[in-house]
What does this fold into?
Amino acid sequence: MYVQRNGLTLELVEGDITLQDTDAIVNAANSRLAGGGGVDGAIHRRGGPAIMAETDEKYPEGCPTGSAVISGAGRLAAKYVIHAVGPVWSGGSHREPELLACAVERCLELALDSGCRSIAFPAISTGIYGYPRGDAARIVLQVALDFQDRFQGPALIRFVLFDHSAYSDFAEALRELVPQTEG
Ligand code: APR
It folds into this structure.
């Protein structure tokens, strides 16, 4: 499923973030950049130790919640991994929506600054961090659409959903935001 405007594409696919050949892929990291399970575990396993070695050296203080940092991608097909730190869901009144939106926007800024024409996101914060998926989907899709409208890039923003139920939640949110969604 996708939306195309002004030659730019926002796309939803079901799949594995580690297998994407976009210029950048986004990791759902923690603020210590210490690795973990879920997306984080999968990226470091498949990408190899070079990714952690680089983040340890460049970002010894880690990365605050609501922001992101960039590294190389080791053995992955992508050129860069952008490590985003989404909020832990604590009921919704602890700035979770704002922090999630800021993390996604920072990823897009880093991608553009690094010359990336394409970027793939997992559903940040919706796994171990417990963010309700439909709510998260509406936020991150709106940020991505607004960003493309403002900066005419990256040319492709892809959301990679790990199972059909996640895909359905994102598809419903995208249809709400852009009724003329195709596919
Ligand atoms: N590809 C795409 N999506 C995936 C993959 C994968 N290989 N593996 C898991 N997912 C999905 C999960 O199903 C979930 O919907 O990504 C979403 C995000 O889940 P998490 O990886 O748990 O990320 P998050 O909720 O942001 O929690 C971050 O988890 O692994 C630790 O170190 C990480 O502490 C941090 C926390």
User: Anything to note?
Assistant: Residues 2-177 form a domain with the Leucine Aminopeptidase, subunit E; domain 1 fold (CATH 3.40.220.10). The mean pLDDT is 97.
